[in-house]
TrEMBL record:
It holds the Pfam family HTH_18. It comes from Salmonella enterica subsp. enterica serovar Durham. The keyword Flavoprotein does not apply. InterPro entries: Homeodomain-like_sf, HTH_AraC, HTH_AraC-typ_CS, Tscrpt_reg_AraC-type_HTH. This is AraC family transcriptional regulator. Residues 59-156 form the HTH araC/xylS-type domain. The keyword DNA-binding applies.
């Protein structure tokens, strides 16, 4: 342990020689040792220390939504999964892409377009698979964002 303290002291040339410094160094080294020990025991704990990543909030939400399109994600559920407050999630998302609800709708509608073009699933089946309450509500949201009915996409695809 004293070797680690000496290494730390040599690397930190700014440290002045006072009576309290060796104790502070010892405490810092012990803290690092304990943290590395806990991380080795439980690799999941490392996410708490490295929660701030380069991955955008919108990318994290995209992964969650894609993993379960049928789920109606609430702000509370998303913020819980991402280990942040609801207000912080909304603020960060708004800066990145706009409102959370619009973003999730756009993700689901992108998937609905893919399914309309590449499968023979009914509109009702697609709406249900994407977590919409009813085919009529799905059609309403689809038309709001894309200015076309899902049935018209199917007709254009067949031509």
């Amino acid at each position: 342990m004293s070797w680690m303290i000496l290494q730390y002291a040599q690397q930190n040339r700014r440290i002045k020689k006072t009576a309290s410094i060796p104790g502070e160094i010892h405490n810092k080294v012990m803290m690092c040792f304990l943290l590395s020990f806990f991380i080795k025991i439980n690799s999941n704990i490392s996410c708490l220390f490295y929660a701030e990543s380069s991955e955008l909030i919108s990318e994290k939400i995209t992964k969650l939504v894609i993993d379960d399109y049928s789920k109606n994600w609430s702000i509370k559920e998303l913020s819980s999964k991402l280990l942040m407050s609801s207000s912080s999630l909304k603020q960060k998302m708004y800066k990145e892409v706009g409102s959370v609800t619009d973003f999730i709708n756009k993700l689901k509608l992108t998937e609905s377009l893919r399914r309309l073009r590449r499968t023979n699933d009914s509109i009702s089946t697609i709406a249900n698979a994407l977590g919409y309450k009813s085919p009529s509500y799905f059609t309403k949201v689809f038309k709001k964002y894309l200015n076309i009915n899902p049935a018209d996409i199917r007709l254009k695809q067949r031509k």
